[in-house]
Design brief:
A hairpin with a 4-residue loop joins strand 1 and strand 2. Helix 4 packs antiparallel against helix 8 and helix 5 packs across helix 7. Helices cover about 35% and strands about 10% of the residues. It is α+β, with helices and mostly antiparallel strands. One of its GO terms (molecular function) is zinc ion binding. Keywords: Coiled coil, Metal-binding, Zinc, Zinc-finger.
Length: about 260
């Protein structure tokens, strides 16, 4: 990263490492993702509501959340296993990888599992593996799965409770309550909010967002660099001092 930009490592180290580096992640929350895709998905989910006034926007979001909680609860009732389909798919993938691993035991619920040229240490007592996949996800990793199978235990029993159908149903049980029309709302004078004063700005209102100097610009469906500061050349003779309209070659051909 430093070879590409000297400022990038300094800017990154300014943030606490536990917010972006997996080596410092907290293992209490069973999630190994470090991204902002959730916010992007939410923004796309409320795309139509975002352009509305505040009250209308919040009403649309309330209805969408109310319907989503209902749909998720109905979907979870169709689960054929005690854990979510996502967790079961990941668990099955880990079991396939575990078939290619080799395990050595120290006789104290500790296992040394080799996966190709890599080797990891698994502790069934602490439910930890040096690959940290079990720590982050709460789903037994291939190395833990191999150790559990070596100890004649069912790896599925060691999956975290957060992936269970019971936990999913508890999340969906708190429903959004129904609300009558806006004319029946009780708005107390002490709770009313006055809109801010509108100040007319100088000049013509801008309809496009002001872009940064080095920000990409979308042209003809493709992303390309901004042409600001780029030296233009003639499209006829490729000379950098003029354009095609003022090209002397075109002018001489016209006179002839």
């Amino acid at each position: 990263m430093g070879s590409m930009s000297e400022q990038a490592p300094e800017d990154l180290l300014w943030y606490p490492a536990q917010h972006w580096c997996m080596a410092y992640f907290d293992t209490i929350c069973k999630n190994q993702a470090c991204e902002n895709n959730f916010s992007k998905s939410f923004n796309k989910w409320i795309l139509e509501a975002r352009s509305k006034p505040t009250i209308k926007m919040l009403e649309d979001i309330r209805i969408k959340v109310m319907n989503r909680l209902k749909d998720l609860e109905e979907e979870s009732k169709k689960w054929t296993r005690d854990f979510s389909p996502y967790a079961m798919d990941l668990y099955k993938d880990y079991k396939i990888i575990a078939h290619g691993c080799h395990v050595q035991s120290n006789g104290d619920l500790g296992y040394e599992v080799a996966e190709g040229v890599d080797r990891h240490v698994v502790s069934l007592v602490r439910k930890k593996c040096t690959c940290r996949t079990w720590d982050f996800t709460g789903i037994p990793c291939p190395h833990a799965t191999k150790g559990l199978e070596h100890d004649k235990k069912e790896p599925l029993n060691e999956m975290n409770w957060w992936y269970s159908k019971e936990a999913y149903m508890l999340v969906c049980q708190h429903k959004i309550q129904l609300v009558r029309g806006e004319k029946f709302w009780k708005v107390y004078p002490s709770h009313a909010m006055e809109p801010p004063e509108v100040h007319k700005m100088i000049g013509r209102p801008k309809t496009k967002r002001v872009r940064e100097r080095d920000e990409a610009r979308k042209m003809k469906g493709l992303w390309s660099k901004s042409r600001k500061g780029l030296k233009m050349s003639c499209g006829h003779c490729s000379a950098p001092v003029h354009n095609k309209r003022n090209c002397p070659l075109v002018y001489s051909l016209f006179l002839s």
